[in-house]
Amino acid sequence: MTQQGVRWTADQVLALAPDSASRKAGSKLGAAGPWSEAGSSDEGTVWGLCRGSGSKPYQTVIDLTDSTGPAYKCSCPSRKFPCKHALGLLLLWAGESGTGSSVPRGQAPDWAEQWIKGRRQRAEEKRTTSGASGAPAGDPEAARRRAERRAERITAGAAELEQRLTDLLRGGLAAAEQAGYGLWEETAARMVDAQAPGLAARVRELGAIPSSGPGWPVRLLEECALLHLLVQGWLRRERLPEGLVATVRSRIGLPASADGPAARDRWLVLAQYDTADSRLTTRRIWLHGAESGRTVQLLSYGAAGRAPELSLPVGLALDAEVSAYPGAGRLRVALGEQFTPPSPVTLRPPGVSVAQATAQYGEALRDDPWLDSHPVTLARVIPTPDAGSWQLADADSELALPLTPAAQSRSGLWRLVALSGGAPVRVFGECGHRGFTPLTAWPEEAGEAVPLC
Amino acid sequence: MNSPLTPPDAPTGSSWEELVTVALLGTERRTPSGTAPGREAPGALLDAAAVQTVRRRAGLRPGRAAARPEPAAADARPALPRPAARRLAMLLADRPGTGSGGRRGTAPDLMELLPQWLALANQRGFAAPPELLPALLDAARGRTDLRPAALAFAGPRALWLARLNPDWRFALRATPGGGATLPGAEEPERARQLWQEGLFAERVALLAAIRAHDPAAARELLATTWATERAEDRLMFLDSLRTGLCAADEPFLEQALADRSRNVRATAAELLSALPGSALAGRMADRAGSCVSVDHTGGTPTIAVEAPHACDAGMERDGMVAKAPAGRGERSWWLGQLVEAAPLSTWSRRLGGRTPEEIVALPVTDDWQGELHAAWCRAAVRQRDPSWSRALLGSPSVPEAGGPGAVSLAERAKLLGTLGSAERAEWVAGFIAVHGLSEAFQLLGVCAVPWAGALGRAVVDALNIARDAGSYPWSFSGVMGLAERCLDPSEAGRLDALTAIPDEPENASPGAGGYWAESFQRLVGTLRLRAAMQLELGGAPMGVVGSGS
Predict the structure, then answer these.
(1) What's the maximum distance between 2 C-alpha atoms anywhere in chain B?
(2) % of chain A beyond a pLDDT of 70
(3) Would you state the pLDDT for residue B539?
(4) C-alpha of B439 from chain center
(5) Composition bias, kind Low complexity: at what positions (chain B) (predicted)?
(6) Neighbouring-strand partners of residue A443
(7) Between the CA of residue A212 and those of A201, A203, B46, B353, what are the distances in Å?
């Protein structure tokens, strides 16, 4: 049973913070000072009273058992989620080994118990209702007509895009340098109108390439050609094998549901990182199945400025089911039922050599030619400076992978270099045509996973 | 990138390069080989490019590895316990500038605890977790006062990192030789070679290192090249003899009194005057003694001062500065220098066998008291003489101790520095009990951390009195901040009562009670945090960690 008894590390707690201000505020509350009547139960509930500026202390409860990450409840007026009190309480709980501490094991007080009970009851109801009504609601005939209409609009948009690419190649890419960003923005907007968000995103990226430095014509031709390939794939989707059709549909931006068979495993959280644009924060979480050896990705979204709800700190593992989204390669999954709460483990993913890593990326391209990178764990590499940039040199051969230009400028690079100290480390990351993006590293000897992103 | 991923060799010569060229120019001007010109040409070009792109990406191979970095030197210290490593990560996450500024709130200032954490970790001899080194080096980069402790804790791998990242160059400067081990006394040849060929910073470090464990060897090494050193280098080298200064240094220093550089001469004289048995000290004692005597003619014994009438060549040779600064009389300027450089032990003999206390208590004629006592203070600090310091400090509870007496607060702080830590704390506690906190900041700064029980209680009582007097806590924010860092964490329990918001008395400043409660909450919170820090680092709650100075 001890899995629940194992407490998280502070890093894992801090990874839950919605922004750096909360992280800082939470860190300050992670000391015994303002807390009273705090405690935790073996079922994964933590509670406490935090003295704030008002006369009445805030009541904070956290439920750690949920599969989508911890759930929080705090009587403070903050709109941050989790608020600093929840973070502080978790830090306080995480920093201690259990006995004689300020968050002792115990029975939850009534106010905490009520919330937890209500929550679990709701979750239970949700599960039974969603399990019962397996078939999607609504008229299947109407849904089919809607899908057909959308496919027609996409086809029209794709044809327009194809014409645009043809014109570009006829006049030459050199002219694109002068055309600038606006033209591509306009085309991207047309693709949004055509309900093909995948095409829109790719088109928008084309606009930035001419100003991306030396070698841009090569990159622009590559991306134009892949866009052309996608458009052609859509236009001739009836003639493609089933897996590739699903890939094309997801690349175009059509929604799909995770209807693959549920796969139960002990999933180790390899990495979690966010990317944000003006509208959306996208959180990517890589998981590694201890038994199946599969590496899969969870995606979670949040409105701009808010952290996505799902949060699984690096270094934890959970016994859970996942089901794959359609598409060849099948890396994207949805998290299904969870059998244990996430808990720290010493598990590490097995690694491969540098040569095997590029070969794996090459093989993955067979299923999805639009793939920019592929998740891979390098067994023994040494971060090595190479004339102003960095590479990961294989400890056992004369080969090396360059880091991507973006990874060169991140602070995680120096954590990786410091962890290595010139010795081999195990590194999980994304290996692609631009190079390698390190996300998590483990020291050669025993030691915790070090997040690099 | 110098070692890019290498695409596979193209099967048909330069077809990819050709495609790029055609694409750049446009199919209107050029057609790719094997396709017909005209309307279909762009599509055919895109088809071919798509095939080539996927082929090139699928066939990518790793590049050649560059020369691997030399591995960092091993760190033999035991690894930091995990809770302590997490605490450090938390302290480092609290970077200055991320806060809202202004009111400080009830939460502890984590960054302010970093120096203490580092001192404790260094004392326990733990190795730094490598993945935290970048954050630690960044913190030390922004705060020079953190650097010595941070670099000591960071260990050899930090220097290894500093050689790779120009942002952290300061670590190499702070550790001359870039962490290469300095030759010890057992390698005289290597030491001699480094001394003769090394860079200035390396030579200073070498001299300091040798001086620390073999003072005579360092002096002899310096003597070998003394005549050929530049004046500013001579000054720095001479200054390093301050460590382990002993009577055997006298001949060398005496010879330096004839140096071409005035600064070198002054430093040599200062060092000699700190050696009570030196010939220079004797000469100064004779000169000073002839200026100060006890006059019995007026009934009560009184100190009579006859300041020197001239500063002759011999006095200048002994380090005295003849020209007085603007606004000071020449003769009192000379007197001050003479008394400062004369061994304090001579006064008892010259002034009728009196103890320092008795001498300080004697009245002084013609308003010379300020000048004379100030010079004795400087001498007591220079010669590190506790009995004179004690006499000059006097009792902390006499009324004038709180005011601007003959001895300034800065001088008192220096005098306190010559006493043992227990005596220091006792004196400052007595001072605060009588005079309150308004003048105490500087004196608290020289007390050992954590504060001794009596001192801590005196500070807390004084804060409590200040609160009851109805003033705002920010008038005491300096002392509050010190208390957060220096008070013994075991005092936290006694402070709990103060964290409640008191009823507002009639004459109090509006809202002050709430702000005081907030300040005390932060104080208690910080003390608890420090207790936790110590526990995590495997210590019984607080041994003595360095001094606060």
Answers:
(1) 128
(2) 91
(3) 62
(4) 23
(5) 60-77
(6) A425
(7) 17, 15, 21, 87
Per the omega criterion (within 30 degrees of 0), is the bond before A82 cis?
yes
Encode pLDDT of B357-371 as tens digits: 888 888 888 888 888
Query: Which of A35, A414, A453 to mutate to test binding with chain B, by most B CBs within 10 Å of its CB?
Result: A414
Contact B402, B366 (CB under 8 A): no
Residue A137 has pLDDT above 60, yes or no: no
> Beta strand pairing status for A332-338 and A316-324?
antiparallel
The class of domain A354-451 in CATH terms is mainly beta
Selected residues 291-350 of chain A with any CB under 8 Å from a CB in chain B: none
Cα B62 from Cα A191, distance rounded (Å)? 37
Residue labelled with tokens 């709430």: B514
Specify whether the CB–CB gap between A437 and A406 falls below 8 A.
Answer: yes
Task: Check CB contact under 8 Å for A418 and B521.
Answer: no
Distance in angstroms (rounded) separating the CA atoms of residues A228 and B337: 90
Residue ranges per domain, chain B? 15-58, 188-275, 276-393, 419-549
User: Are both A263-344 and A354-451 of the same fold?
Assistant: yes
With CB atoms and an 8 Å threshold, state whether B61 touches A94. Answer: no
Concatenated DSSP letters of A147-211? HHHHHHHHHHHHHHHHHHHHHHHHH-HHHHHHH-HHHHHHHHHHHHHTT-HHHHHHHHHHHHGGG
Longest dimension (CA), chain A: 76
Residues of A in contact with B165 (CB under 8 A): 414
Report residue B301 CA to chain centroid gap: 46
CB contact under 8 A, A385 and B134: no
- Determine the pLDDT at residue A149: 92
Residues from chain B contacting residue A35 (CB–CB below 8 Å)? none
Distance from the Cα of A402 to chain B's closest Cα (Å) equals 6
* Interchain CB distance below 8 Å, A173 and B24: yes
Residue numbers of B between 107 and 136 with CB closer than 8 Å to A: 107-108, 110, 130-134
Residues linked to residue A302 through DSSP beta bridges, in sequence order: A281
A99 part of contact set with chain B, CB < 8 Å: no
Instruction: Output DSSP code: residue A376.
Output: E
Tell whether domain A263-344 is in CATH 2.40.50.
Answer: yes
Q: Of the candidates A165, A229, A362, which has its C-beta nearest B58's C-beta?
A: A362
**What does the pLDDT look like over B82-140, one tens digit per residue?**
888 888 988 888 655 444 444 456 677 777 888 889 988 998 899 999 999 999 999 89
Q: Check A21 against B64: CB less than 8 A apart.
A: no
pLDDT higher for A314 or B500?
A: A314
- What is this structure's pTM? 0.73
Q: Is residue B420 classed exposed, middle or buried when 0-12, 13-18 and 19+ CB atoms within 10 A define those classes?
A: exposed
* pLDDT band of B403, cuts 50, 70, 90: very low
Q: Which pair of structure tokens corresponds to residue B545? A: 């960690």
CA distance, residue B136 to nearest chain A CA (Å): 11
Higher pLDDT, B184 or B52: B52
Q: What are phi and psi of A71, to 5 degrees?
A: -110, 145
- Residue type present at position B136: L
Domain ranges of chain A: 2-128, 142-252, 263-344, 354-451
Q: DSSP letters along B218-278, please?
A: HHHHHHHHGGGS-HHHHHHHHHGGGTT--GGGHHHHHHHTT-SSHHHHHHHHHHHHTSTTS
Is pLDDT of B443 > 70? yes
Mean pLDDT score of chain A: 85
Which pLDDT score is estimated for B401?
Answer: 54
